[in-house]
Design a protein that fits this description.
Helix content is 77%, strand content 0%. By secondary structure, the chain is mainly α. The protein is built from 5 helices and no strands. It starts with 6 loop residues before the first helix and ends in a 6-residue tail after the last helix. It has one domain.
Length: 119
C-alpha cells in the first residue's frame, strides 16, 4: 500500500479503538449485576451493540490500512481502558500500568513509522 494515509482515516481508526474500549466498560458494568437481571441484560445488550458498531467501523478501517498497522493501533485500547477504569470505576493508575501502556504506544509508533514505506 504505497498511498498516503489521510487524517480522516487516522481519526476513524482511533474512533473505532475508542468504541471498542467502551465495550469493556459495558461488560464490566454487566458483571456487577445479578445474572440475567434486567440491568445485566441491558448492559450485556449495550456491549453487544457497541461491538456491532465497532465491527462496522473496523471493516471500514481495514480498507484504508495494512492489517498489521491497524492491529498495532488497536492495542491503544489498553490506554483507553485504563482511562475508563480510572474515570468510571475509580481504579488506580499505577506506575506499572503506565509503563506498560507507554511500551505498547512505543510499539505502535514504531509500526506506524514504516507505514509510508513499501516493503
Amino acid at each position: 500500500m504505497g498511498k498516503r494515509v489521510k487524517l480522516i482515516d487516522l481519526v476513524m481508526l482511533e474512533v473505532s479503538v475508542v468504541v471498542y474500549s467502551l465495550s469493556t466498560v459495558a461488560a464490566n458494568m454487566a458483571s456487577k449485576q445479578e445474572f440475567l437481571s434486567l440491568k445485566y441484560i441491558m448492559f450485556f445488550g449495550l456491549d453487544f451493540c457497541i461491538l456491532g458498531v465497532y465491527a462496522i467501523l473496523w471493516q471500514q478501517v481495514i480498507k484504508k490500512f495494512q492489517l498489521s498497522i491497524a492491529y498495532a493501533n488497536k492495542s491503544i485500547t489498553l490506554l483507553w481502558s485504563m482511562l475508563w477504569n480510572f474515570l468510571i470505576f475509580s481504579q488506580g493508575i499505577t506506575p506499572g500500568k503506565v509503563a506498560g501502556v507507554l511500551l505498547v504506544m512505543a510499539g505502535v509508533i514504531v509500526m506506524n513509522m514504516g507505514e509510508g514505506q513499501n516493503v
